[in-house]
């Protein structure tokens, strides 16, 4: 969908030199990122083994709920700054301008992190009141470390805009590796609880983000000149993606809140969370592929058919494998969590559709069609909320899982619709340019 906001954001910055994407480069960068994400996936599997071995479902539920509170709060404070900054970085003319623009984003991240920490500490009593939990002191303990969370999104979107895929890969491996190391130490010392695991995760995020920033080498001298352009871009392009990110995350994170509100036993939330995490790797390659093509998609007219073809084949194969063999493996490898095995089938479908729309989502974002992404997210979030409030009271966690699968199917269909619409909208512009 092309609006005045889209046109303004697309023309508010000077275009970078056009460079058509090379499929060999696509394969190489996707391989690098996917290898790192595969490594991180293996590390996360070890994380799951540690948590499943030493943490009871009740503690797992407490950890999952608190993480949802912190992560969603983080998204509300970001206000589209880093999405706008990613586009500013992608369109920058030279390396020095990129470093200064990155320095401006670091300033933004520090300010957002401070506000986030104060917000979590202030609202923790209200969380207990609304959801009938006893998590106030856990959230207050984690509030200070939540300062580092905005830096995670800063790193991910900056590496995307700069096409620094190797640094992004290192960041993801570092984050997973540091978290696993901390959990192992806690487990050996018999101190692994929801509180200690949450502190370990936030600390690992901070350390990994700082190490990656050192490699990216932001420049703070002269960075102030990029604050105004970033804010200008955030008002249109960034704001639309901010609304899209909030609503999209709500559609996949709101389930934890609805489950906790309607289901008294927080251990069921722990079972739900583990099944969800086991199925998430299905869409890992699709996300890696989309991230590596962000900079290239800004300068092409359509998503290459080779990308969509192989993306679909791999997603179908992995989803069918998870649906067929996942429940059996879960029951035998993690018997304490065997009751969550039926959830793997809807979660496999969820990740299939979530992976299918990734190339289209990145293409729309890179081409400046942020209003389309916003519209998709708003529709999907509304349907997700309705679905959760209808299914969870009656069917519990299984209802939530199937409601999520349906909303991801809708998400994919809407992305396909807006992608085709964007091609038709840009066709007259391309024709005039050629003339």
Features:
single chain, 435 residues, mainly alpha, 17 helices, globular, disordered N terminus, disordered C terminus
Range of helix content: over 70%
Major β-sheet, in short? Answer: none
Number of domains: 1
- The radius of gyration is 21 Å
How many distinct beta strands? 0
Portion in beta strands:
under 5%
End-to-end gap = 24 Å
Contiguous low-pLDDT stretches (5 residues minimum) are 1-23, 429-435
Structural category is mainly alpha
Shape: globular
Number of separate helices: 17
SSE string: HHHHHHHHHHHHHHHHH
- Mean pLDDT over all positions: 82
Set out the fold topology.
Elements: H1 4-11, H2 23-54, H3 57-78, H4 81-91, H5 95-131, H6 136-143, H7 149-162, H8 165-188, H9 194-216, H10 227-262, H11 266-279, H12 284-292, H13 294-297, H14 305-333, H15 344-356, H16 358-366, H17 370-434
Helix pairs in contact: 2-8, 2-12, 3-5, 3-9, 3-10, 3-11, 4-5, 4-7, 4-10, 5-6, 5-7, 5-10, 7-8, 7-9, 8-9, 10-17, 11-15, 12-16, 14-15, 15-17, 16-17
